[in-house]
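// run 5 | inverse folding | seed 20
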């Protein structure tokens, strides 16, 4: 599996849709985050200066700067599932190469690599963003992540019914998919619709990776469904059932009404 300008691309050239965030959006998100950090540090500096005189105040402010620049992105992306205030404002999200949610390890790696980018005045990050298929900066390459765009505009996909795989009807009825994100749903949907275009080797590689990432995020035991493709089909069936039937799916799914399925 490789990555291209838009979507995850299999060795057969099949694109699994996902929109990569451009440098313009990412730059604006970074500016917003720097403003947020700057305001926070400015307020803290004033309070510290009033309480701690002399060198102690300078040390505390320096520590606050380090935490703001490197700690804030790592903790925000972990807690907010790949988002900071700036990314949320620009409708961006950090995901893994399988379109799964990032954890603290990935977010921390991305954050620490900012030091190298600051030392090169941002040139290193711009160069790697220009030459990589997914506009990845150094931190993204090291962490195995990239940034996607999630616009608020509702974009409807053709209606495709996903019924529970045979023998899994009871499991699907109890499957909690309330935390499934629109970008994850879109990739799973694309994979299932195009699975016939993949070679056996590609299916055995990509399917389990998508299933593992999805199951980890949703708290499922995918082994209950037999194999990766049956599990992914069950997730899509549960999503449609949760939304009230086999209706047309929106990329940005509205808040569910009616029955909510318990987590398995």
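// decoded
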């Amino acid at each position: 599996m490789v990555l291209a300008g838009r979507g995850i691309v299999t060795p057969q050239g099949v694109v699994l849709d996902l929109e990569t965030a451009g440098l313009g959006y990412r730059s604006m998100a970074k500016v917003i985050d720097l403003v947020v950090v700057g305001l926070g540090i400015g307020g803290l500096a004033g309070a510290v200066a009033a309480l701690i005189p002399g060198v102690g105040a300078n040390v505390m402010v320096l520590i606050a700067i380090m935490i703001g620049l490197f700690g804030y992105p790592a903790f925000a992306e972990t807690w907010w599932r790949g988002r900071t205030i700036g990314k949320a404002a620009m409708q961006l999200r950090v995901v893994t190469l399988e379109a799964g949610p990032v954890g603290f390890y990935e977010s921390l790696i991305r954050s620490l690599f900012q030091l190298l980018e600051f030392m090169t005045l941002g040139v290193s990050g711009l160069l790697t963003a220009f030459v990589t298929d997914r506009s990845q900066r150094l931190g993204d390459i090291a962490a195995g992540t990239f940034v996607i765009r999630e616009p608020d505009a509702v974009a409807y996909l053709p209606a495709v019914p996903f019924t529970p795989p045979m023998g899994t009807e009871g499991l699907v009825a109890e499957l909690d998919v309330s935390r499934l994100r629109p970008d994850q749903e879109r990739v799973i949907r694309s994979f299932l619709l195009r699975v016939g275009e993949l070679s056996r080797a590609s299916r055995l590689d990509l399917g389990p990776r998508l299933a593992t990432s999805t199951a980890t995020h949703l708290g499922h035991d995918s082994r209950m469904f037999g194999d990766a493709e049956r599990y992914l089909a069950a997730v899509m069936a549960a999503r449609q059932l949760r939304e009230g039937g086999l209706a047309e799916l929106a990329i940005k799914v509205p808040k569910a009404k009616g029955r909510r399925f318990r987590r398995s």
